[in-house]
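Box 3.1 — From sequence to structure: ABC transporter ATP-binding protein
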Amino acid sequence: MHNAIEIRDLTKTYGTKRGLTGLSLDVRAGEVFGYLGPNGAGKSTTIRLLLDLIRPTSGTASVLGLDPRHDGVELRRRIGYLAGDFVVDGRQQVRECLRFLAALRGGVPQTRIDELAERLGLDTRATIKSLSKGNRQKVGLVQAFMHHPELLILDEPTSGLDPLVQQTFLELVTEAANNGQTVFMSSHIMDEVEAVADRVGILRDGTLVALDTVADLRAAAIRQIEIAFAEPVTIEEFGAVPGLLDPQLDATGTVLRAGLSGTPDLLVKAAARHTVTSLTTADPHLDEIFHSHYAAAEAAPQTAA
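Predicted structure (token representation):
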């Protein structure tokens, strides 16, 4: 499968500050890619570089096999883009605005625009300036999705949306992926990314600190384990189990609680020397994985410049 986006050693500096540092990343055609990080991590900088809205200090980016700098006009026909700060002329009616944007893309059937507006609960008769932030965001979503672009680049797409509309947005993303479209979606809301993403990248201070499927990130993360025994056990019996973190027993000595990284096989074998009455494990959510990568990066010793 070819790549919809290819980034190599991309760096962007703003004076003495770095927005991105040597970013290398591939986004496969047809996948939903979640790009995670808090505000200021470099997500919007990456997107603006991909769209040639700003220029890199060094490194390269290819989008749909084209150079954003030299092939910008063609790329804009093939991309659906929602900016994190979506702004259009406030004096227009929603329907006028969407018709104008549709014309720029070579025309979009009115039925398609009306269908998206209805699904999102958007009043197309209203003027842009009368809309709440959430309703302006709906306008942004309609214009991004309406022309069935090969690639959707969405920067914090659910900002200001209520939970019901967020769910509709996730349905639109799933439909786009099923239609063979690629979705590159930046967010700091973990649940929405976990619901639809094939892979995720976690960005910290302009540097990619993790890149994998949600399932593999979860498998490599620390899970919480609780084992109840019919009779008391000792901590020492489990001290040699690899990956067992901070094991603790309750007051009765019959319930073991710990974190576990990696395979549980040796823990299960150690526990099987006793009568086990229950065993529970809690897989981490994506937000826990996200925060664990941030905590690990913060705990790492800093090298001198």
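Summary of the box: The longest strand covers residues 3-14.
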